[in-house]
Write a structure and sequence with these properties.
- InterPro entries: ABM_dom, Dimeric_a/b-barrel.
- Pfam families: ABM.
- The protein is α+β, with helices and mostly antiparallel strands.
- It has one domain: Alpha-Beta Plaits, CATH 3.30.70.100.
- It has three helices and four strands, in the order E-H-E-E-H-H-E.
- Strands 2-3-1-4 form a four-stranded antiparallel sheet.
């Protein structure tokens, strides 16, 4: 299992829009092949979001990100996200240990 931490800082004027995007798009993410769980968290600064995601593997997540990168009708792409955030997202991967 792979744990993914996806962190972004949203522009102050776009926080409500981003929250709406999460509400609309997380069901698509959760339904994507290999996704076990996704939970969004908001920092006390009110603009920094971390999505804590569990995936079957890093490869499943990378395939999902390729899908998100391609614009398509009826869903938000990474390009749509780029206009709402400051800087680049931070994406960190962790592999589960047998302990």
């Amino acid at each position: 299992m792979t744990l993914v931490l996806f962190e972004i800082v949203v522009k102050s004027e776009c926080v409500d829009q981003f929250k709406g995007l999460l509400e609309a798009e997380l069901p698509n993410t959760r339904a994507y092949d290999g996704c076990q769980h996704v939970t969004p968290f908001l920092d006390e600064d009110g603009r920094t979001f971390v999505l804590v995601e569990h995936w079957d593997s890093k490869e499943h997540y990378e395939k999902y990100m390729e899908w998100r990168a391609a614009p398509g009708p009826g869903f938000a792409s990474l390009g749509d996200l780029a206009s709402l955030i400051e800087g680049d997202p931070s994406i960190r991967y962790f592999e589960a240990l047998e302990a």
